[in-house]
Design goal:
Blueprint lengths: L20 E6 L2 E6 L2 H4 L7 H11 L9 E3 L7 H8 L3 E3 L1
């Protein structure tokens, strides 16, 4: 259940969150993430912020190769997946 109830037919732009599969291309890989808004709510969809941060990392704004980070497991994990593909060692 979403934290904020809404009528999905009335809100423009949110229809993509109801698609069962989100597909992205980062670091020369195709990444497919299953989404389930109705069962798991806002944590089970890929938000624009994750796409923007993944793009920022892919642009090389931060050197990731050979570095370590802790993946906190927020959201669908797109940013962590992209960071790992770019050479970041993720500790879980």
């Amino acid at each position: 259940m979403a934290l904020v109830p809404y009528d999905e037919t009335a809100v423009m732009g949110l229809q993509r969150f109801h698609k069962p599969l989100a597909t992205f291309s980062f670091a020369n890989h195709t990444i497919q993430i299953q989404q389930d808004w109705r069962q798991l709510g806002v944590a089970a969809v890929v938000w624009d912020a994750a796409v923007v941060l993944s793009t920022y990392l892919e642009m090389g704004a931060v050197e990731l190769r050979g570095r370590s980070a802790v993946e906190l497991g927020a959201g669908t994990g797109l940013v962590g997946i992209v960071a790992a593909l770019l050479g970041l060692y993720l500790c879980s």
